[in-house]
Every structure is written in C-alpha cells, then in structure tokens.
Amino acid sequence: MFGRKKGAGVLQKGPAGRRFREYLLGYTLLAPALVLLAVFEFFPLFYGLYISLCNWRLGCAEFVGAENYVRAFRDPQMWQALLITATYSLMSVPVQLGLGLFFAYLLFQKVRGRELFRLVFFLPYVTSTVASAAVWSYLYNPDRGLINTVLGVLGLPQPRWLAEPTGVFALMARAFGVELPAWAHGPSLALVAVFVYTTWVFVGYDVTVFLAGLGNIPTELYDAARVDGAGSWALFRHITVPLLSPTTFFLSIITVIGTFKAFNHIYVMTMGGPGTATTTASIYIFRQLYEFNRYGYSAALSFVLFSAILVLTILQNRFAGRRVVYE
Amino acid sequence: MLRGKLRRFATVLVGLAAILGACMPQAGPTPPSPGQITNPPTTPEMVDAIDLTGKNIEVVYWHNRPQRDQELLQSMLDEFNRTNPYGIRARAEIAGASYNDVYNKINAAIQAGQPPDIAVAYQNQAAFYRAQGAVIDLTPFIQSKKYGLSEADLKDYFPVFLESDANPQFKGERLGFPTQRSVEVMYYNADWLRQLGYTEPPRDWKTWEEVACRASDPASKKYGWAFRHDASNFATMVFTRGGRILSPDGSAYVFNSQAGADALAMIQRMFKNRCAVEIPTSERFGEQNRFGNGEVLFVFASSSGLPFYREAVEKGARFAWDIALPPYTEKPAINLYGASVSVFKTTPERELAAWLVIKFLGERPQTVKWAVSTGYLPVRQSAKDEVIAAFQRNPQWGPVARSYARIFDWLQYAMVESPVAGYDPVRTIIDQEVMSRVINDPNVDVKKLLDDAVAKANEILRENAPKSGR
Amino acid sequence: MSKPLELPISRPAEVRQLLPRPPGVRLAVYLILVAGALVSVLPFAYMVTSSLKSYGSVITNNLWPWWPFGNEPLQWQNYIEAIQHTGWDRQWGTWLMIRYFANSLIVSGIIVAGVLVTSVLAAYALAQLELPGREFIFLFILATLMVPGELVLVPKVVMMFNFGWYNTYLALTVPFTVSVFGIFLLRQHFLQVPRELFDAARIDGAGHLQYLLWVLLPLSRPALVVIAVLNFIWAWDAFQWPLLVTRDPSMRVLAVGLQQFMVGEGGVNSHLLMAFATMMVAPIIVLYFVAQRAFTEGFLSTGIKR
C-alpha cells in the first residue's frame, strides 16, 4: 500500500528548505480534500459519537456514557445482523471480483462489438433500483416467477427464494432426507437470492474499474513475453495479475467496505425479511433509528459497525497490501 | 505504537465530540415568558388574548401528497391568504412521498431548531414529537372563543375522527387535527362469489374462511385471500372479534387476548391449507393487481384505494366487485386510520396562525375538494352528500361511488389501532415476529408468539412513554 | 517552462490479443459474453418495454402486447404524459420534469468537476510527495468511507440549516465534491508510474505542477474517466440527500422526482414510472458509451531500457 521505500529518490536530497517547501506544497494540495472531508464527514461523525453517548430525544436528555455500547454488545440481534453481513460479504467479494476480472479480461480483447458488450454489462449498475428490483422480484416470485416456472417445467422442486428463511445447506440436505444441526444450516436462501441480485448489479462496476486498470499495463511487456514464447495463461499469471494488483487491491477494499455497509438494494428487495433472514447490520441500524426512534442506540451500533469495518480494512491492508506490485 | 496513537486519537475524538455537541443547536423547552401567554398556550383565554394584527405571519405546511394534490392544496391556501383578516400567508410544500420521508425531514428540522408550522403526522408520530416537546396541544385553540370552533362546528365533525386524535398518553391532549381519514374494508369479487353459490359476502369469520378455502386452487394460482402480512390487517381481525390492540387508557398492549389468538390461528390455518397467498414485499401493489386479474377473491385494504382497484379491475379481468364490512363474530368493527396534521411549537402567534389555517382547511368547501381529489373521507358530516355526488359524476369513480357512500354508515363501528408513541416498531414486531412466523410455520404456538410480542411491545411502550414533568 | 516536455512515450495500443488462438476459444468467448449480456440487459429491457405499454399490459405482465402477438400500439405518449405528470415549474416557466433534468445536470456537473480537482491534488500529494503523517492521513481519508450513512445523515442536514445552505445548490453539491474513491483510485494509478519519468521531467526543468499536468494526468486518463463517470452516476442517482435538503420543487433533482413518483403513484401509473425511469437512465448510457473509449486508450510505455 505504501509502496515506495522511504529515502529513495531525488526528493530526499537537497537543502532542508526545499523539503519544507515540498511539505507545504503537499499539505496545500491535500487541503481542499481534507477540509471537505473533515467538515462534511468527520464533524458529523463526532456529533454522532456525542449522540451515541446520550439518551437522545432530539437533544441530549441524559448523558449515559457507554451504556448504549454495552447494550449493543449484549444484543443478540446485533450479533446476528453482523453474522449475516459477514456471510454476505464473504460470498460477494470473491464472486464479484472474480466475475468482474473474468469479464473485463474478455472485454479487453479484440472481440467484435466489445463496446456494446461493455455498455450492456454496465447497465445493471445504472438501471434504477426500482426497475431492477422489480424485475428480479418478479423472477424470484414463488408463484409466477420465471425461475420457478422453468423449474416446474423441468420437474424440479420450486423453492420460495426471497421468502425462504431456511439455510441453503439445510435445504439441500433435506432433499436427501438428511436433517442438519442448526449451526450447519448455512446462509438463508433469501440471502443467497439477494446476493445473486447484488452480484448482478455490481459486476459491471467491477468490470469498468478493472478495464481502467488493464489499460495501464504496457503492451511492450506482453510483446516481449510472447517473443519469449509465453502462452496465454502464462501472460495472465505473470504479467496481468501482478500489474493489475493495485486495482485488484483497491477494488477488494472498496468491495469489502461496500458489502459491509450494504443497504439499499437489499432493503428495496426484502426490507430485511423474511423475518430477519436478510437483515444486515445496516438494515438493523436503520430500523433502530427510524422505527424504534432509538437515536442513541443506533448511533452506538453504527460506531460498532464502523469499527468492525475499520479493523477489517487495516487487516486487509496489512496482509494483502504487501503483495501489491507497483512497478 | 499504533495503540498509543489510537488512544490519543480517541481522547481527542471524545473531547471534540463533547465540545462540538454543545455547539449544535438543540430544541428544548422555553421558559414561560413574563406575561400571561405561555408557549404553548394552555387555556382558551390565553389564545383569545393573542393579537395577530400587523404581524403578517408566514405559515408553512408540510405534506406528502403528489404534485396534483399540492396544487389543489396551494390554491385553497391562496384563497385563505386572500380572505383572512390577519394578513397570514400560508404555503404548502411537499416534504416527501411517504410518511417516513416527512418524518425524517421533520426530525432533522426540529433538531436544527427550524420546524415547519404544520405537518402531517400519524398519531403515534405526533406522540413522539410531543414527548420531545416539539408539538402542541390544540385543545385551547379549539375551545377559544375568538378563534376556535363553535359547538355546531364541532358537532359537524365526525366524532370518531376527533376522538382518534385525543392522545391517552398525554391525558387526552389533542396533538393533531384530522384532515382526512380512511377505513380498512373488504374488497371482494362478486362474480366469483356468485359462482361459488353466495349472493352476499360472508358476515362471520367461519363462513368467510370456508368460502376462501373453497375458492382456492393453488394449481391454477387462484387463492381466496391475498395477504401482505400487514399489521393493519391483523388489527382488523382483532377488532372484529371484539379485541383491541391497545388498552383504552393507553397503558398496555393487549393484542394477545383470545381475539388475537383466534385471529392468528385462523391465519395460520389458512396458509397451512393453502387458502391464502402471501404477497412478498417486493411485489408492489401485488394484492391490487392480482385482485384486478381475478386471481384473488378477498383483499383487506384501505378505502382510499377504491379508484385504483377500479382501474385494476377495468384493465384486468373486468368483473363485478364491491366492498363490504369485514366479517365479525358479534359486533361489526372497522379499522379507522389516516394521518392528522400537527402544529409545532414555535411562538404563540405562529401557532395561532397555523391553527387558523387548519380550521380553514377543515371547513366544508375545502374538505369536500380535498376528499374528492384524494379519495379519502371528508372530515365533516355535512360534506358527505356533496362528495358522494361529485364521485358519482366522476367517470373514474362511477359505480364505485355507491360503495363509497356506504362507508359513512360504517363509521359508527370505527376503531383505532394505537395512537401512542412507539407504535411503529410494534407494527414491525407484529409483522416480522408474528405474521411472518405464522405464515411459514403451521405448527408454531400462536398464543406464545403473541405473548412474546406483547411483552416486547410493552417494553417499547415504556421506553417511549413521556417522562414525568413534561 | 514554456518548452514542451519531451518524453519517450509511444502511441497507445488498442486492445491486446491475449487469448489462445484456436477458433473454439473465440466461439466460447462470444457465447459467454452473449449469455452475460442477456442476463445483464433483462431488467433494462423490462423497463424500456414497459414504458411503451399501456397500464393494463404492465400489470398483467403481458410481455409483448404489440405486433405480432397483440394489437396494442407503442405508447409513445407515456413519455409526454410522464413529463406533464410532474407539474409546472413556476420559477422557470416550464415543466417541472425539465427543471429536474436541468438541476440534475448542473448538480452532477459541478460535483464531477469538484471531485476531479480535489482527487487529483490529493492523490498527487499522497503518491508523489514524502509527507510526514502520510499514512495517518490516508487512513483518515479511507475511514470516512466506512462511516455508515444513517449515522451522519441527520447531523449533516442540521449543518445545512446552520450554514444557511438549505434549499440551495450549495447543499446539493459542496459536500460531494470530494470522493475517497477518486483519491484512492488515482493514487493507485499514480503509484504505478515509474520513477524515471519524474526524474526525466525534473531534468527537463519541470516542477511538481508541470509534471502533474503535462505528464501524469494524460497518462491517467482511464482512471480519470472512470472517476468522472462513476461520480456523475452517483450524483445523478442520489435521492435521499437532495430530498432532505430541499423544499421547493424547483430545486429538486430527477432522482427525487422518480422516487417520489414511485412511492406516491408507482402502483397506479407503472407505465409512466417506467417511462420516467428510462428517461432518467438515458443520459447515463450515452455518457458511458462516449466515455468508454478512454478506458482502453490509457497506456504506459516508456521505451526506457531497464
């Protein structure tokens, strides 16, 4: 992540005044972004922290310190929401990035109509959630949806998709007459159905970013390697993957953060249901805020989620950041 | 090293939070100003004493109707602006498309110290605002000799509408004033009913269940009843069995009574026997569309949907249909709902100006126009005939106008769900933890489900109850 | 420094042929792409076809009511009706829909311009300059991305009231003129540029700003275009914030209009809703189509022997 070795390069030499000027330039360049972020993201965050320390009734009715946080840690529903969120992220990240890279690679070739294809793959991301959720809901409808209709024609069982709270492993085992213990049920079918929908939405976005990354790899490297007799797979493994790693790393961080905050598409599809089968952490926080009016508690929950994401990102950075190749 | 940094960072954060938090403006109770009029005014005499001459107050009204209704509302307000003797200028604004949007906006505005003067709010939302001291009791204004409603006027309002705004949590304070109402009725497919051998819709639940089950044919995707596991549907079933959602003094939730258990058991049976279909959240207006396509025999929905159902049937399978009182065990009952408008605490003068706007909008010509445009019920009894006549003339309503006229006869049976603060999360509990479970699990113990839900609901009730002294 | 910098950069190569030659592979590739494309385009097709149907056909899910399976004409008037349905803007004397469209353009345009400027400057500082506290600043910036939206929504709205920006273009644009995504992505791209280029520029007498403007930016075109397009789309689609910080219909953006329409009357005017949604997505498609070219024309080649 911080690829350059300290002390390398022209800039470290020279009089201290020059270095100071450079620092000044650096901070000046950073200033607009930092000021905007500080005012519009961090300041509200502090205010949110203040709310989380209060029994909040549109004003701090009572300062309760860490009480909301203690409650959050003792709340089984919060843990369940975090579990669902983590499961969802674990499913989504590799699949989204894998498919994204796969299609980006294909669309980078001299394929006829590639510009049209790229546009079409990007369409799910820009189609309004209204339209895309409506269509997928219709596809998944247990009674008259396209998927179940096709399954019915083929004589296969017709699961209830978005309305099915039972875990997928349990369902599969039941087909063979086996009843799994509760902990092995796996993610609910509803969650998996939603995951398919959101993957469909975001793959086009991943493809777009990957394409930009692929565009950065110099032709000479490929030409030189081919001259040396390298086949397509070798090209991919030894040139594309390493040189794409900054983009891949970037996307993996963004995707993990995004899936942990996942709200909009899931909420529009299922509103967190059936029951709490698809209630991610963000949906749970939303509920606490807008339905239960527990401002202070939902603020504390938000901070818990925020910390979880922060820790994950730092870990990701530590482990994966080392393997990113910049030159 | 990192941990040291983090600790320092955290200390700085909390410190900053405390400082900055103190800097943000907060809504709090204002001490009574010297003189006779408190804010808000607590007696009709105080209201009488308010002087509006020369103040030229601007009143802002936030609502959630679409553009067409906004224009009607504004044109009515323009008339008020022209004719009122105090120079009050009122303006209507769309604050969102759903009650949720409006609620969020209001919360933000209250915290910024700039609430609107008037806004739509459900009774339980108004109770929430009141618990924060952000909305006022309208009783002194209603009773004011100079500015209030006369005896005759008050009697003209449908009594059950006015009652629904008296809040039991706050000793009967009127935290809102009705501008519209609707009721939950049973839509039924008359042609299909006739095919099954019935000339009239079922009057009791047992017959209703039989009919619905006879009508159902899952193989051809036809069902007797389409259910969106809505808490209001459940409430209708409880009311019609003689039960209640909330105790009359607002102190506890009581939907785990025998009425509640019977209602839930019926739902459970119907889904077990596949007499009913669940409309998934994602299938918007699913019950309406399926009804219009002739795939569902009965639906419980709001009377304000009449023109929409008419259109769905017309564009769909085109059959004879009508609305009816829901079935009942001993006495009929009907679920009355609809938001009211609340006045926010600002200054006595602005509050009075806001009240005058509301009073104007409740007068007969205005309530007629509003009801005709929105499909809701008018709030005055004297407006009834005019509204029905207007619907009869309207090609969109046509035959449905006859059904609409019958609703007024049913108002005597009206009941209200729960006007207390914190009812929204209770609805979610009923929806997710009771309805969802019972639809999916034919063996779950309904009484236990209800008891658990009521325990949680009562906890929420306590949490949201007003603190003493406010 | 008026002399243009001369750097050994070769002309861009379009796309590379990186897959094995045999014809079977090409066919397989096409099949996969077509399958993927069909899956991708389905809801979009639903939206567009529904926008040309009558209300009845939409709710009965009649997939193809026109010739040759039915006799309904294409309902082009749905579009006109959708425009008229939103009402009249008194301020500009035109349909509100047109005003929404203009507002969206203005707001999204300003946001994209702001994002590009702040991202370029910040990414350069973080990638190229050895600043003390660099790691901390980067983590700070990344941390803002992790903040759950609901937590900061109300405080941010309250701030708009306090600044006096409520119901102005300022509230709609200024908070979004910085993009962590943009800073991060650009930084990754900047870090990939070899040191030698900078040294060569230095030798030619260029300072940091010249290097940035004349060397780095042209090389980063794919990244810049991605950032611009994505931020435009996010600004275009955002509805929750604009809803909360505006009051006049004249200040509304298209996304708010669509959401309000959907929640308010979507069930009874589904055909108009789809027309509205199609109109809203059309500019984005045009934008993406036009911008695509820039993704692949980026390149980096130095010709410098290692």
* The level-1 CATH class of the largest domain in chain B: Alpha Beta
Radius of gyration of chain B: 24 Å
- In terms of quaternary structure, the protein is heterotrimer
The name CATH uses for the topology of chain A is MetI-like fold
> What is the share of helical residues of chain A?
55-70%
CATH topology of the largest domain in chain B: the name is: D-Maltodextrin-Binding Protein, domain 2
- Helix fraction bin of chain B: 40-55%
Can you tell me about this structure?
The complex is a heterotrimer of chains A (327), B (470) and C (306). Chain A is mainly α. Helix content of chain A is 69%, strand content 2%. The radius of gyration of chain B is 24 Å and the shape is globular. Chain C has a single domain, classed as Orthogonal Bundle (MetI-like fold), CATH 1.10.3720.10. Chain C is built from 14 helices and two strands, in the order αααββααααααααααα. In chain C, a hairpin with a 4-residue loop joins strand 1 and strand 2. Chains in contact: A-B, A-C, B-C. Chains A and C meet through helix 1, helix 3, helix 4, helix 5 and helix 8 of A and helix 1, helix 4, helix 5, helix 6 and helix 8 of C.
Write the layout of secondary structure elements.
The complex is a heterotrimer of chains A (327), B (470) and C (306).
Chain A (H helix, E strand, L loop, with lengths): L15 H37 L1 E3 L3 E4 L3 H7 L2 H32 L6 H13 L2 H12 L5 H8 L14 H8 L13 H26 L4 H9 L4 H29 L3 H7 L10 H10 L4 H27 L6
Antiparallel strand pairs in A: 1-2
Helix pairs in contact in A: 1-13, 2-13, 3-8, 3-10, 3-12, 4-8, 5-11, 8-10, 10-13, 12-13
Chain B lengths: L1 H22 L20 H6 L8 E6 L3 H17 L5 E6 L4 H13 L6 E4 L1 H9 L7 H5 L7 H6 L2 H6 L1 E2 L5 E2 L2 E2 L3 E8 H6 L9 H11 L7 E5 L3 H9 L18 H15 L3 E3 L7 H7 L3 E7 L3 H10 L5 E4 L9 E4 L2 E4 L4 H14 L2 H11 L9 H10 L6 H11 L3 E2 L7 H18 L5 H19 L6
Parallel strand pairs in B: 1-2, 1-3, 8-9, 8-10, 12-14
Antiparallel strand pairs in B: 3-13, 4-5, 6-13, 7-10, 7-11, 7-12
Helix pairs in contact in B: 3-16, 11-12, 12-19, 13-14, 16-17, 17-18, 19-20
Chain C lengths: L22 H28 L4 H5 L17 H9 L2 E2 L4 E2 H33 L5 H13 L2 H15 L5 H5 L6 H12 L3 H9 L4 H12 L1 H17 L2 H6 L8 H12 L4 H27 L10
Antiparallel strand pairs in C: 1-2
Helix pairs in contact in C: 3-14, 4-8, 4-11, 11-14, 13-14
